[in-house]
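Lab notes, practical 5.
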Amino acid sequence: MDYKTFFDDVLGWIHQANQTAAQYGMHTEQFWAWVADSSGKLCQKYQNHQLAIKQMLMLVEWLEDVYKNR
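Output from the prediction step:
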């Protein structure tokens, strides 16, 4: 696994998550559907490598915490 490429993709995903939250709002079904779909696709891109799965789970949990604490 190319870790630099993976973490560059993670940074891109975080940027896209911020844009998607701004576009739809974190309270919308569209936002959470995007989170689920895009995080799954990123894991698949890296053949569901354990690091990819754990990284994306952590980011989704982090987004859930941000949403709950608003």
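Observations recorded by the TA: The chain has a mean pLDDT of 97. The CA atoms of residues 22 and 50 lie 30 Å apart.
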